[in-house]
Predict the structure.
Amino acid sequence: MQTRLKRVFLILSKGLNDNNLFVQEITTSRARFPKAVSQYEVLTFFGRNIIATEGDEWKKYRKISAPAFSDVSVSS
């Protein structure tokens, strides 16, 4: 079975959507908005990573990298 992916362009601007409902829906519903990992294959040159994966594997890399982006580490 072949699936054809369509290109989607999303432009977000502060003030364009004051209630942020749209942004929240996209960022909290990862399963409904999967990325085309085949487009990121070149980024696996040094191994699998958070950008070039999806699903359970992505969750693993997200958990590993999350502390580096916490409020405490970013503010220091």
